[in-house]
Amino acid sequence: MKFNIQSEITYEVISPTTFIFNIHALRTNSQQIITENLTLNPQLHVDEFSYNSGSGRFLRLKSMESSTFTISYSALVDTHYTIFDQRQEFQTVPVVELDGEIIPFLFPSRYCQSDKLQKLAYKEFGAISNIYSKVLAITDWIYNNVEYVSGSTDSETSALDTITERTGVCRDFAHLGIALCRALSIPARYLTCYAYTLQPPDFHACFEAYIGGNWIVFDATRLVPLNSLVKIANGRDAADAAVASIFGNASSKSIRVSCEVAEDNFTPFWYNENVLNGFSMQ
Fold this sequence. Notes:
Elements: E1 2-21, E2 31-41, E3 46-49, E4 58-63, E5 67-79, E6 82-84, H1 118-125, H2 131-145, E7 147-148, H3 159-165, E8 167-168, H4 170-183, E9 188-195, E10 204-211, E11 214-218, E12 229-235, E13 244-261, E14 278-280
Parallel strand pairs: 7-8
Antiparallel strand pairs: 1-4, 1-5, 1-13, 2-5, 3-4, 6-14, 9-10, 9-12, 10-11, 11-14
Helix pairs in contact: 2-4, 3-4
Protein backbone atom coordinates (compact mmCIF):
# COMPACT_ATOMS: atom_id res chain seq x y z
CA MET A 1 0.00 0.00 0.00
CA LYS A 2 1.31 3.47 -0.88
CA PHE A 3 1.32 6.37 1.57
CA ASN A 4 2.28 10.03 1.25
CA ILE A 5 4.05 11.09 4.43
CA GLN A 6 5.21 14.52 5.49
CA SER A 7 6.71 16.21 8.54
CA GLU A 8 7.76 19.79 9.21
CA ILE A 9 9.42 20.99 12.41
CA THR A 10 10.46 24.54 13.26
CA TYR A 11 13.01 25.37 15.95
CA GLU A 12 14.15 28.56 17.58
CA VAL A 13 17.89 28.33 18.22
CA ILE A 14 19.26 30.39 21.12
CA SER A 15 22.95 29.46 20.87
CA PRO A 16 25.07 27.05 18.75
CA THR A 17 23.20 23.75 18.74
CA THR A 18 23.62 20.35 17.12
CA PHE A 19 20.48 18.42 16.14
CA ILE A 20 20.03 14.76 15.34
CA PHE A 21 16.76 14.09 13.51
CA ASN A 22 15.06 10.77 12.89
CA ILE A 23 12.20 11.55 10.49
CA HIS A 24 13.08 9.61 7.32
CA ALA A 25 11.11 6.53 6.33
CA LEU A 26 13.22 3.42 6.78
CA ARG A 27 14.24 1.26 3.83
CA THR A 28 13.41 -2.39 4.57
CA ASN A 29 12.38 -5.52 2.69
CA SER A 30 8.74 -4.58 3.32
CA GLN A 31 9.02 -0.83 2.81
CA GLN A 32 10.14 0.79 -0.43
CA ILE A 33 10.72 4.53 -0.75
CA ILE A 34 9.55 5.60 -4.19
CA THR A 35 10.37 9.31 -3.87
CA GLU A 36 11.49 11.54 -1.01
CA ASN A 37 12.53 15.14 -0.45
CA LEU A 38 14.28 16.96 2.39
CA THR A 39 14.44 20.76 2.68
CA LEU A 40 15.88 23.12 5.28
CA ASN A 41 15.06 26.80 5.54
CA PRO A 42 17.53 28.44 5.79
CA GLN A 43 19.84 25.93 4.14
CA LEU A 44 22.19 24.13 6.54
CA HIS A 45 24.77 21.42 5.99
CA VAL A 46 23.36 18.02 6.94
CA ASP A 47 24.79 14.49 6.90
CA GLU A 48 22.97 11.18 7.16
CA PHE A 49 24.19 8.21 9.20
CA SER A 50 22.85 5.00 10.69
CA TYR A 51 23.80 2.50 13.38
CA ASN A 52 22.44 -0.67 15.01
CA SER A 53 22.37 -2.53 11.67
CA GLY A 54 20.56 0.29 9.91
CA SER A 55 17.57 0.46 12.26
CA GLY A 56 17.10 4.18 11.51
CA ARG A 57 18.21 6.93 9.12
CA PHE A 58 19.55 9.79 11.21
CA LEU A 59 20.34 13.34 10.12
CA ARG A 60 22.90 15.52 11.89
CA LEU A 61 23.15 19.27 11.48
CA LYS A 62 24.46 22.26 13.43
CA SER A 63 23.06 25.75 13.71
CA MET A 64 25.85 28.14 14.68
CA GLU A 65 23.87 31.25 15.58
CA SER A 66 20.62 32.50 17.06
CA SER A 67 17.99 31.88 14.42
CA THR A 68 14.83 30.06 13.48
CA PHE A 69 14.95 27.17 11.05
CA THR A 70 12.52 24.64 9.59
CA ILE A 71 13.25 21.10 8.50
CA SER A 72 10.74 19.45 6.14
CA TYR A 73 10.59 15.88 4.88
CA SER A 74 8.15 14.24 2.47
CA ALA A 75 8.05 10.85 0.79
CA LEU A 76 5.93 8.41 -1.17
CA VAL A 77 6.35 5.00 0.46
CA ASP A 78 5.12 1.58 -0.61
CA THR A 79 4.56 -0.81 2.32
CA HIS A 80 4.07 -4.57 2.31
CA TYR A 81 2.95 -6.55 5.36
CA THR A 82 3.29 -10.22 6.15
CA ILE A 83 0.08 -11.41 7.82
CA PHE A 84 0.07 -14.31 10.25
CA ASP A 85 -3.02 -16.25 11.28
CA GLN A 86 -3.38 -15.88 15.03
CA ARG A 87 -4.65 -19.46 15.26
CA GLN A 88 -1.33 -20.94 14.22
CA GLU A 89 1.00 -22.28 16.89
CA PHE A 90 3.97 -19.93 17.12
CA GLN A 91 7.12 -21.58 18.36
CA THR A 92 9.06 -19.86 21.12
CA VAL A 93 12.70 -19.36 20.21
CA PRO A 94 14.74 -20.23 23.34
CA VAL A 95 17.18 -17.58 24.48
CA VAL A 96 20.06 -19.98 23.89
CA GLU A 97 19.09 -20.13 20.18
CA LEU A 98 18.50 -16.42 19.56
CA ASP A 99 20.71 -14.61 17.06
CA GLY A 100 23.15 -12.17 18.62
CA GLU A 101 21.37 -9.17 17.08
CA ILE A 102 18.16 -10.13 18.93
CA ILE A 103 19.73 -10.51 22.40
CA PRO A 104 19.87 -6.75 23.26
CA PHE A 105 16.08 -6.60 23.05
CA LEU A 106 15.82 -8.92 26.06
CA PHE A 107 17.63 -6.57 28.43
CA PRO A 108 16.18 -3.80 30.61
CA SER A 109 16.73 -0.35 29.10
CA ARG A 110 16.37 3.26 30.19
CA TYR A 111 12.59 3.46 29.74
CA CYS A 112 11.76 -0.25 29.94
CA GLN A 113 12.74 -1.57 33.38
CA SER A 114 11.71 -5.14 32.71
CA ASP A 115 13.69 -6.41 35.68
CA LYS A 116 11.37 -4.49 38.01
CA LEU A 117 8.18 -5.82 36.39
CA GLN A 118 8.81 -9.56 36.45
CA LYS A 119 6.50 -10.28 39.38
CA LEU A 120 3.58 -8.49 37.73
CA ALA A 121 4.32 -10.02 34.32
CA TYR A 122 4.39 -13.59 35.61
CA LYS A 123 1.28 -13.06 37.75
CA GLU A 124 -0.79 -11.68 34.88
CA PHE A 125 0.60 -13.55 31.87
CA GLY A 126 2.91 -16.34 33.03
CA ALA A 127 0.26 -19.07 32.70
CA ILE A 128 -0.39 -18.36 29.00
CA SER A 129 1.55 -20.95 27.00
CA ASN A 130 1.17 -19.63 23.44
CA ILE A 131 3.69 -16.82 22.96
CA TYR A 132 1.51 -14.87 20.50
CA SER A 133 -1.51 -15.10 22.82
CA LYS A 134 0.74 -13.96 25.66
CA VAL A 135 1.77 -10.76 23.86
CA LEU A 136 -1.85 -10.16 22.83
CA ALA A 137 -2.84 -10.46 26.48
CA ILE A 138 -0.16 -7.91 27.42
CA THR A 139 -1.48 -5.54 24.75
CA ASP A 140 -5.08 -5.95 25.94
CA TRP A 141 -4.08 -5.47 29.57
CA ILE A 142 -2.34 -2.17 28.79
CA TYR A 143 -5.33 -0.93 26.78
CA ASN A 144 -7.73 -1.82 29.61
CA ASN A 145 -5.61 -0.59 32.51
CA VAL A 146 -3.81 2.51 31.23
CA GLU A 147 -5.73 5.60 30.13
CA TYR A 148 -4.53 7.39 27.02
CA VAL A 149 -4.25 11.09 27.94
CA SER A 150 -2.50 13.50 25.57
CA GLY A 151 0.20 15.54 27.28
CA SER A 152 0.02 13.50 30.49
CA THR A 153 3.69 12.44 30.44
CA ASP A 154 7.06 13.78 29.36
CA SER A 155 10.39 12.59 27.99
CA GLU A 156 11.41 11.22 31.41
CA THR A 157 8.40 8.93 31.86
CA SER A 158 9.29 5.22 31.99
CA ALA A 159 7.33 1.97 31.96
CA LEU A 160 7.55 1.85 35.74
CA ASP A 161 6.01 5.34 35.95
CA THR A 162 3.21 4.28 33.61
CA ILE A 163 2.38 1.28 35.78
CA THR A 164 2.16 3.60 38.78
CA GLU A 165 0.24 6.49 37.21
CA ARG A 166 -1.91 4.41 34.83
CA THR A 167 -1.92 7.19 32.22
CA GLY A 168 0.24 7.84 29.20
CA VAL A 169 0.63 8.48 25.47
CA CYS A 170 1.71 6.17 22.68
CA ARG A 171 5.39 6.05 23.66
CA ASP A 172 4.40 5.07 27.21
CA PHE A 173 2.06 2.32 25.99
CA ALA A 174 4.90 1.02 23.81
CA HIS A 175 7.46 1.14 26.62
CA LEU A 176 5.17 -0.76 28.96
CA GLY A 177 4.48 -3.44 26.33
CA ILE A 178 8.21 -3.83 25.71
CA ALA A 179 9.02 -4.06 29.42
CA LEU A 180 6.37 -6.69 30.13
CA CYS A 181 7.49 -8.79 27.15
CA ARG A 182 11.12 -8.66 28.19
CA ALA A 183 10.14 -9.56 31.76
CA LEU A 184 8.81 -12.81 30.26
CA SER A 185 11.98 -13.39 28.16
CA ILE A 186 10.26 -12.27 24.94
CA PRO A 187 12.48 -9.94 22.86
CA ALA A 188 10.69 -6.65 22.15
CA ARG A 189 11.68 -3.39 20.51
CA TYR A 190 10.37 0.14 20.09
CA LEU A 191 8.91 1.30 16.78
CA THR A 192 8.41 4.93 15.78
CA CYS A 193 6.39 5.60 12.65
CA TYR A 194 4.02 7.71 10.61
CA ALA A 195 0.43 6.52 10.97
CA TYR A 196 -2.64 7.06 8.79
CA THR A 197 -5.80 8.38 10.57
CA LEU A 198 -3.95 9.28 13.78
CA GLN A 199 -5.76 12.14 15.53
CA PRO A 200 -4.42 14.62 16.21
CA PRO A 201 -1.77 14.06 13.50
CA ASP A 202 1.65 13.36 15.02
CA PHE A 203 4.43 10.82 15.01
CA HIS A 204 3.29 7.50 16.48
CA ALA A 205 4.93 4.78 18.57
CA CYS A 206 4.16 1.12 19.14
CA PHE A 207 6.24 -2.02 19.65
CA GLU A 208 7.31 -5.24 17.98
CA ALA A 209 7.73 -8.61 19.69
CA TYR A 210 10.00 -11.35 18.35
CA ILE A 211 7.71 -14.34 17.86
CA GLY A 212 8.51 -17.50 15.93
CA GLY A 213 11.47 -15.86 14.25
CA ASN A 214 9.50 -12.77 13.14
CA TRP A 215 9.12 -9.23 14.46
CA ILE A 216 5.34 -8.74 14.83
CA VAL A 217 3.72 -5.35 15.43
CA PHE A 218 1.50 -4.61 18.46
CA ASP A 219 -0.20 -1.32 19.34
CA ALA A 220 -1.85 -1.12 22.74
CA THR A 221 -3.35 2.32 21.99
CA ARG A 222 -5.68 0.95 19.26
CA LEU A 223 -5.62 4.44 17.71
CA VAL A 224 -4.75 3.50 14.11
CA PRO A 225 -5.15 0.56 11.73
CA LEU A 226 -2.26 -1.85 12.08
CA ASN A 227 -1.71 -1.83 8.32
CA SER A 228 -1.39 1.97 8.17
CA LEU A 229 2.09 2.32 9.65
CA VAL A 230 5.15 3.67 7.84
CA LYS A 231 8.26 2.71 9.79
CA ILE A 232 10.81 5.37 10.77
CA ALA A 233 13.07 3.49 13.18
CA ASN A 234 13.48 0.71 15.72
CA GLY A 235 15.35 0.78 19.02
CA ARG A 236 15.51 -0.62 22.52
CA ASP A 237 13.24 2.25 23.56
CA ALA A 238 12.57 5.90 22.65
CA ALA A 239 16.13 6.86 23.56
CA ASP A 240 17.31 4.97 20.45
CA ALA A 241 14.58 6.22 18.13
CA ALA A 242 13.74 9.77 19.18
CA VAL A 243 12.41 11.99 16.40
CA ALA A 244 14.74 14.81 17.47
CA SER A 245 17.68 15.00 19.87
CA ILE A 246 19.05 18.44 20.79
CA PHE A 247 22.58 19.17 21.98
CA GLY A 248 22.60 22.85 22.85
CA ASN A 249 19.95 25.49 23.47
CA ALA A 250 16.89 25.40 21.20
CA SER A 251 13.15 24.92 21.46
CA SER A 252 10.49 23.57 19.13
CA LYS A 253 8.07 26.21 17.89
CA SER A 254 5.80 24.10 15.67
CA ILE A 255 5.39 20.60 14.29
CA ARG A 256 3.20 19.27 11.50
CA VAL A 257 2.92 15.59 10.57
CA SER A 258 0.72 13.87 8.01
CA CYS A 259 0.25 10.40 6.57
CA GLU A 260 -2.25 9.95 3.75
CA VAL A 261 -3.22 7.00 1.57
CA ALA A 262 -1.97 7.37 -2.00
CA GLU A 263 -4.23 4.65 -3.46
CA ASP A 264 -7.98 4.01 -3.50
CA ASN A 265 -8.00 0.37 -2.43
CA PHE A 266 -6.89 0.70 1.18
CA THR A 267 -8.86 -1.50 3.59
CA PRO A 268 -7.99 -0.52 7.17
CA PHE A 269 -7.37 -3.38 9.55
CA TRP A 270 -8.51 -2.16 12.94
CA TYR A 271 -7.79 -4.00 16.14
CA ASN A 272 -10.41 -6.61 17.03
CA GLU A 273 -9.91 -9.02 19.90
CA ASN A 274 -11.73 -11.81 18.06
CA VAL A 275 -10.09 -11.69 14.63
CA LEU A 276 -6.71 -10.03 15.14
CA ASN A 277 -3.97 -11.33 12.87
CA GLY A 278 -0.26 -10.72 13.24
CA PHE A 279 1.42 -8.07 11.11
CA SER A 280 5.12 -8.07 10.36
CA MET A 281 7.03 -5.12 8.83
CA GLN A 282 10.45 -6.79 8.53
